[in-house]
Amino acid sequence: NCPLSLLVSVVLVGLLCLVFCSQPTSLDAAPLCTNAEAGCHVLSLANLFDRVIQHSARMHSISNDLHSEFELYFLPSKNQIGRVSRNCHTSNILTPNGKENAQRMAREELTEVILKLLVAWRDPLWHFHQSMTHFHDFIDFSSNKSLKMSDMVHELRKGVQKVVEKMQMLGILSNSVSSLMSPEAFLAPGSAEWRLMKDYELLYCFRRDSNKVQNYLKILKCRIVPEDGC
Amino acid sequence: MNIMALSLASNLLILLILSSLDWLPSPGSTFLTDWDHTTSSALIEPHFTECISRDQETFRCWWSPGTFHNLSSPGALRVFYLKKESPTSQWKECPKYIHSNRECFFDANHTSIWITYCMQLRTQNNITYFNEDDCFRVENIVRPDPPVSLNWTLLTISPSRLNYDVMVNWESPPTADVRLGWMRLEYELQYREGNTTNWEALEIQPHSHQTIYGLHLGKEYEVHIRCRMQVFIKFGEFSESIFIQVTEIPSTEFPVHLTLVFVFGTVGILILIMLIVISQQNRLMIFLLPPVPAPKIKGIDSELLKKGKLDELNFMLSGGGMDGLPIYAPDFYQDELWVELMEVNETEDVDSGEKEDNRGSDTQKLLGQSQPVSQHINISCSNSISGPDAESAQATCYNSDLPEEETLMLMATLLPGQPDEEETSLDTVERSSASETGERQLIQTQTRGPQTWVNTDFYAQVSNVMPSGGVVLSPGQQLRIQESISAAEKETKKKRKESEDSEESEERKQKEPQFQLLVVDPEGSAYSTESSIQQISTPPPSSPMPGEGYHIIHPQPVEPRPAATMEVNPSPYILPDSPQFFAPVADYTVVQELDSHHSLLLNLPSHQTPPSCLPQHPLKAPMPVGYITPDLLGNLSQ
Question: Signal peptide: which range, if any (chain A) (predicted)?
Fold first, then answer.
């Protein structure tokens, strides 16, 4: 009896393995390439926009979380919105303040605004992260979001540059934007203003600016990639 | 003018006092913080109750005059706002009043996102009620409109017909520009059963559909949804409720039957398969796991090893007609001088009291006859001594220390059976033939030398019963005798302690075994045999052999010593090996080993038996007859 049952169980196991092992393996991730080389999976502009927008949404979410946690940890008193004494250092960048304004803006301008914002926040966030490393408790509390944030700004800027390149390649954007692509072009005289800002103010301002970037990207996509509802 | 100045002054004074007292709730703590209603009795100055944006393009603000009822008239309070878009911004008045609602509406032209607004209430007299906490950014005050077009569809009903799942669909509020992506919403669905007060909230997710699992049939459910902007906190209002109810569906017979059919069909098939497997188990087993072929000795048919075919086996082993078997069997019999036939006159009456005399006479006879045998024993023993156990064998062959009581071997001897004795039988096989009462039976003495004792079974098989009452013992089996002897020895010991009465004889008669054995103790050889047998393991004294007691009569006059020393010294009672070594009927012995010439060395099964007394000829197996049991044969087939 025992050998027979053993044999039957072995056969069953073999059958099960055949069933499950014969399933196709995971889909291979196609490598991305900007040039339409053979074997590359070329991303469409819409796809690029989607990725960038997703990234910016995540960046905005993290900045919001960090701002709330900062408030909870360092400033347990009430709403501090009115207490911000000075404007954000990015205030000199002219940004559309509404949907219609953004829609009316030229694509190149809008793209420029986005890039300017992203560039303007690279250094301040890095500095913020450095200053936060002294507060180990806060870092544990906020699970090191500041580092994530500064990385994300960097990544997002590169992503938007890729999108711009693609748009220029497709002829959607004029080449006037290219002059603004290098980070040196954004070194405005007021670029050191952020050093005067306190940490909380930095977070407060960045939360706003990340929301701006997210919305601008959405509007830009809607204008460039024809979609239902735009 | 005076009155007005007075009123103004009084108002200011009151304000000062109250503010100094500092129990006045902070003015302007309006929509951004919860309005504390516990201080309703206190003076509450005009404040903003709430500012809300529905679409992130416009917003509205509502104010309240507080307890200043004189300011409640429309126009008494004015709304001013400050847009902090530049350092030189200024306060501006509300672009559109809705006095009926005490509402200030900011249209798209006046609404800027990501810019801080501060709100202020001013009276006609430019008294300003302003709270720093009332500054906000429009994206933070967005509360979207509730979703619209709620509907539900039935997904599944559980097989138990008690629960069901429902998919709820809706659309985003039309005011929220979701398609552009200007507002990204996430929804929270809540449902409750009937009229209970607790709402069940499902997970917040951004899709415009959601499944509710596990609703109960027959009950009515109420569902409503609200939404908010992703990443932000403030929810909009709940939508209008929809009601879900699924009544009992009359169960169609088909699914039930189908289920039953499947279940029973499967069970039946399984039972059938099991029956087939069980009935054909052997064949299946043979098919899957072929049996291992049984061992086979070259030249010997395994059939011969079965019961009752010893003759053929002997024939074959003796080399008759078969090839491959070494012909050494005849050598077996060269030393078979230990088989002897002895007769004892049975005419003498043997009473219990005269037993000893009888024994004496018998013993003499036996001694007379056995002496040469014993001599022969000595001789043969000396011949046979070989091997590593030579010394012990020698000790056994010649006189040595008397063994303990346990190491006794019974020498079967013949005994004149008492006429009133019960019938005796040699063993179960011969029982029927020897059942006449009073018949004396001859038991052949196995007075063979210790060689025999040591190396072979010290038992013999009764192969024939003489008409005169003698018993012909054939070599090979003394199982019964030995088995019985051990039991008989116990009895005898008992009897030895008691006096020999007639009662005893009666007892004996009643308990008498089938036949009696007289332990012959030849003077010299007895000891020698004793000593020779001392090596043999003793059977456990408790080995019971009921019904087969052997009456052991001590050869008293001849050997007073043994009688007296029965307890002290090992009497000539030589107990055989423990019966466990012997099977009741079969003619066999244990094959001890296989020597270099592949001859079977058959030995006594006693482990104490020194195997040394082997015949010098290595080919000669000490066993007179090559009895081999099939299972033992298996061990030898190499």
Answer: 1-21
For residues B335 and A102, the model is more confident at: A102
Do A4 and B285 make contact, defined as CB atoms within 8 angstroms? yes
pLDDT tens, residue by residue, B442-466:
444 444 444 444 445 566 677 777 8
Point out which residues pair with B91 in neighbouring strands: B82
Q: Note whether ipTM > 0.90 here.
A: no
- Residue B408 CA to residue B419 CA, distance in Å, equals 29
Q: Is residue B410 part of a domain?
A: no
| Mean predicted confidence (pLDDT) in B2-14 | 67
Q: What is the mean pLDDT of chain B?
A: 66
Higher-confidence position of B271 and B493: B271
Q: Which domain holds residue B128?
A: 47-141
Cα separation, A69 vs A82, whole angstroms: 18
Q: How far apart are CA B234 and CA A167, in angstroms?
A: 37
Average confidence (pLDDT) over B301-312 = 68
Return residues 100-119 of A near B (CB < 8 Å).
100
| Beta pairing, strands B552-553 & B590-594 | unpaired
Q: For residues B609 and B455, is the Cβ–Cβ distance under 8 A? A: yes
Which CATH code fits A45-223?
1.20.1250.10
Residues B184 and B202 in one domain: yes
Q: What residues does each domain of chain A span?
A: 45-223
pLDDT in tens, B498-529: 544 544 444 444 444 444 444 444 444 444 44
Could you say which of B141, B165, B188 is where a domain stops? B141
> What are residue B517's DSSP bridge partners?
B552
Structure-block tokens of residue B508: 């004996």
Q: Are B55 and B121 found together in one domain?
A: yes
If asked whether residues B160 and B103 sit together in one domain, one would say no
- Within B21-102, strands assigned E span 47-52, 59-64, 77-83, 91-93, 97-98
Taking a C-beta distance cutoff of 8 angstroms, is the pair A113, A219 a contact? no
| The total number of structural domains that make up chain B | 2
Residue B77 and residue B102 share a domain: yes
Answer yes or no: are the C-beta atoms of B552 and B563 closer than 8 Å: no
Q: Torsion over CA of B408, B414, B418 and B423, rounded to 10 degrees? A: 90
| Residue B414 contacts residue B495 (beta carbons within 8 Å) | no
- Which are the contacts of B175, defined by CB distance < 8 A and separation ≥ 6? B54, B55, B144, B145
Instruction: Find out whether B168 and B211 touch, Cβ atoms under 8 Å.
Output: yes
**Which domain-ending residue is among B253, B269, B286?**
B253
Give the per-residue pLDDT at B539.
Answer: 42
Give the pLDDT confidence score for residue B10 in this predicted structure.
67
Q: Is A7 near chain B, with CB under 8 Å? A: yes
Report CB contact under 8 Å: B139, A211.
Answer: yes
- Asked, for residue B523, whether it belongs to a domain, the answer is no
pLDDT surpasses 90 at B604: no
pTM equals 0.50
User: CA A110, A114, A115: angle at the middle one, nearest 5?
Assistant: 120
CATH number of the domain enclosing B223:
2.60.40.10
Nearest by CB to residue A78, choosing from B33, B231, B232, is B33
Please compute the mean of the pLDDT values over residues B520-541 and round it to a whole number: 42
Neighbouring C-beta atoms of residue B371, cutoff 10 Å:
16
Amino acid identity of B281? Q
For chain B, say whether A2 makes contact (Cβ under 8 Å): no
Give a yes or no: residue B102 inside a domain: yes
CA dihedral B225→B230→B233→B236, nearest 10 degrees, is -30
Q: Which residues of A touch B137 (CB under 8 A)?
A: 81, 208
Is B172 inside a domain boundary? Answer: yes
Q: How far away is chain A from the Cα of B128, in angstroms, using its nearest Cα?
A: 17
- DSSP letter at A184 equals G
Q: Report the largest interatomic distance among the alpha carbons of chain A, rounded to a whole angstrom.
A: 89
Residue A171 Rama label (left phi>0; alpha psi -120 to 50; beta): left
